[in-house]
Protein backbone atom coordinates (compact mmCIF):
# COMPACT_ATOMS: atom_id res chain seq x y z
CA UNK A 1 0.00 0.00 0.00
CA UNK A 2 1.53 3.31 -1.12
CA UNK A 3 1.27 6.26 1.25
CA UNK A 4 1.15 9.67 -0.42
CA UNK A 5 0.33 12.96 1.36
CA UNK A 6 -0.65 11.04 4.49
CA UNK A 7 -3.23 8.90 2.65
CA UNK A 8 -3.01 5.18 1.96
CA UNK A 9 -3.96 4.89 -1.69
CA UNK A 10 -5.39 1.57 -2.93
CA UNK A 11 -2.84 -0.70 -4.62
CA UNK A 12 -5.04 -2.55 -7.11
CA UNK A 13 -6.43 0.55 -8.88
CA UNK A 14 -4.94 2.52 -11.76
CA UNK A 15 -2.65 5.35 -10.67
CA UNK A 16 -4.94 8.09 -12.06
CA UNK A 17 -7.91 6.74 -10.09
CA UNK A 18 -5.92 6.06 -6.91
CA UNK A 19 -4.56 9.62 -6.77
CA UNK A 20 -8.11 10.98 -6.55
CA UNK A 21 -8.37 9.41 -3.07
CA UNK A 22 -6.22 12.33 -1.88
CA UNK A 23 -8.33 15.33 -0.81
CA UNK A 24 -7.55 18.17 -3.22
CA UNK A 25 -6.61 16.04 -6.23
CA UNK A 26 -9.40 15.37 -8.70
CA UNK A 27 -9.38 13.53 -12.01
CA UNK A 28 -7.85 16.43 -13.97
CA UNK A 29 -5.00 17.01 -11.50
CA UNK A 30 -4.32 13.27 -11.23
CA UNK A 31 -4.08 12.99 -15.01
CA UNK A 32 -1.75 16.02 -15.15
CA UNK A 33 0.55 14.50 -12.51
CA UNK A 34 0.74 11.17 -14.34
CA UNK A 35 1.45 12.87 -17.69
CA UNK A 36 4.10 15.14 -16.14
CA UNK A 37 5.97 12.12 -14.71
CA UNK A 38 5.55 10.04 -17.91
CA UNK A 39 3.74 7.19 -16.17
CA UNK A 40 1.51 5.09 -18.43
CA UNK A 41 -2.18 5.67 -17.70
CA UNK A 42 -2.98 1.94 -17.52
CA UNK A 43 -0.33 1.24 -14.82
CA UNK A 44 -1.55 0.07 -11.42
CA UNK A 45 -0.25 1.39 -8.10
CA UNK A 46 1.16 -2.04 -7.19
CA UNK A 47 3.28 -1.95 -10.36
CA UNK A 48 4.96 1.37 -9.50
CA UNK A 49 8.56 1.38 -8.39
CA UNK A 50 9.61 3.09 -5.16
CA UNK A 51 11.29 5.79 -7.27
CA UNK A 52 8.04 6.56 -9.11
CA UNK A 53 6.06 6.73 -5.86
CA UNK A 54 8.70 9.12 -4.51
CA UNK A 55 8.41 11.29 -7.66
CA UNK A 56 4.62 11.44 -7.30
CA UNK A 57 4.95 12.36 -3.61
CA UNK A 58 7.46 15.14 -4.36
CA UNK A 59 5.35 16.54 -7.22
CA UNK A 60 2.24 16.70 -5.03
CA UNK A 61 4.16 18.31 -2.15
CA UNK A 62 5.69 20.93 -4.45
CA UNK A 63 2.76 21.86 -6.70
CA UNK A 64 -0.52 21.12 -4.91
CA UNK A 65 -2.26 22.09 -1.67
CA UNK A 66 -3.77 18.87 -0.35
CA UNK A 67 -5.31 17.24 2.73
CA UNK A 68 -4.78 19.12 6.02
CA UNK A 69 -3.44 22.34 4.49
CA UNK A 70 -6.31 22.55 2.01
CA UNK A 71 -8.95 21.81 4.65
CA UNK A 72 -7.42 24.46 6.92
CA UNK A 73 -7.39 27.04 4.10
CA UNK A 74 -11.04 26.37 3.22
CA UNK A 75 -12.08 26.55 6.88
CA UNK A 76 -10.22 29.86 7.31
CA UNK A 77 -11.91 31.30 4.19
CA UNK A 78 -15.35 30.34 5.54
CA UNK A 79 -14.49 31.76 8.97
CA UNK A 80 -13.36 35.02 7.32
CA UNK A 81 -16.70 35.32 5.53
CA UNK A 82 -18.55 34.68 8.79
CA UNK A 83 -16.48 37.30 10.64
CA UNK A 84 -17.17 39.86 7.91
CA UNK A 85 -20.89 39.16 8.30
CA UNK A 86 -21.35 39.36 4.54
CA UNK A 87 -24.30 37.57 2.93
CA UNK A 88 -22.35 34.37 2.26
CA UNK A 89 -21.00 34.40 5.81
CA UNK A 90 -24.50 34.75 7.26
CA UNK A 91 -25.70 31.82 5.16
CA UNK A 92 -22.80 29.70 6.43
CA UNK A 93 -23.55 30.74 10.01
CA UNK A 94 -27.23 29.75 9.69
CA UNK A 95 -26.48 26.51 7.89
CA UNK A 96 -28.41 27.47 4.77
CA UNK A 97 -27.44 27.14 1.09
CA UNK A 98 -24.79 29.69 0.16
CA UNK A 99 -25.00 29.81 -3.63
CA UNK A 100 -28.53 31.01 -4.27
CA UNK A 101 -30.43 27.73 -4.21
CA UNK A 102 -34.09 27.73 -3.22
CA UNK A 103 -35.00 26.82 0.36
CA UNK A 104 -38.82 26.69 0.27
CA UNK A 105 -38.49 23.06 -0.76
CA UNK A 106 -35.33 20.97 -0.99
CA UNK A 107 -32.10 22.23 0.67
CA UNK A 108 -32.34 19.26 3.05
CA UNK A 109 -28.62 18.59 2.85
CA UNK A 110 -27.81 21.99 4.39
CA UNK A 111 -30.88 22.40 6.62
CA UNK A 112 -30.92 18.90 8.07
CA UNK A 113 -33.86 16.60 8.69
CA UNK A 114 -37.29 18.26 8.42
CA UNK A 115 -38.74 19.32 11.77
CA UNK A 116 -42.54 19.13 12.21
CA UNK A 117 -44.27 22.39 13.15
CA UNK A 118 -47.21 22.15 15.59
CA UNK A 119 -50.53 23.49 14.37
CA UNK A 120 -49.47 23.56 10.74
CA UNK A 121 -52.01 20.95 9.52
CA UNK A 122 -55.36 22.27 8.33
From TrEMBL:
<keyword id="KW-0694">RNA-binding</keyword>
<keyword id="KW-0699">rRNA-binding</keyword>
<dbReference type="InterPro" id="IPR010979">
    <property type="entry name" value="Ribosomal_uS13-like_H2TH"/>
</dbReference>
<dbReference type="InterPro" id="IPR001892">
    <property type="entry name" value="Ribosomal_uS13"/>
</dbReference>
<dbReference type="GO" id="GO:0000049">
    <property type="term" value="F:tRNA binding"/>
</dbReference>
<dbReference type="Pfam" id="PF00416">
    <property type="entry name" value="Ribosomal_S13"/>
</dbReference>
<protein>
    <recommendedName>
        <fullName>Small ribosomal subunit protein uS13</fullName>
    </recommendedName>
</protein>
<dbReference type="GO" id="GO:0015935">
    <property type="term" value="C:small ribosomal subunit"/>
</dbReference>
<comment type="subunit">
    <text>Part of the 30S ribosomal subunit. Forms a loose heterodimer with protein S19. Forms two bridges to the 50S subunit in the 70S ribosome.</text>
</comment>
<dbReference type="GO" id="GO:0006412">
    <property type="term" value="P:translation"/>
</dbReference>
<dbReference type="GO" id="GO:0019843">
    <property type="term" value="F:rRNA binding"/>
</dbReference>
<dbReference type="GO" id="GO:0003735">
    <property type="term" value="F:structural constituent of ribosome"/>
</dbReference>
<dbReference type="GO" id="GO:0005829">
    <property type="term" value="C:cytosol"/>
</dbReference>
<dbReference type="InterPro" id="IPR019980">
    <property type="entry name" value="Ribosomal_uS13_bac-type"/>
</dbReference>
<dbReference type="InterPro" id="IPR018269">
    <property type="entry name" value="Ribosomal_uS13_CS"/>
</dbReference>
<feature type="region of interest" description="Disordered">
    <location>
        <begin position="95"/>
        <end position="122"/>
    </location>
</feature>
<dbReference type="InterPro" id="IPR027437">
    <property type="entry name" value="Rbsml_uS13_C"/>
</dbReference>
<comment type="similarity">
    <text>Belongs to the universal ribosomal protein uS13 family.</text>
</comment>
<comment type="function">
    <text>Located at the top of the head of the 30S subunit, it contacts several helices of the 16S rRNA. In the 70S ribosome it contacts the 23S rRNA (bridge B1a) and protein L5 of the 50S subunit (bridge B1b), connecting the 2 subunits; these bridges are implicated in subunit movement. Contacts the tRNAs in the A and P-sites.</text>
</comment>
<keyword id="KW-0689">Ribosomal protein</keyword>
<keyword id="KW-0820">tRNA-binding</keyword>
<keyword id="KW-0687">Ribonucleoprotein</keyword>
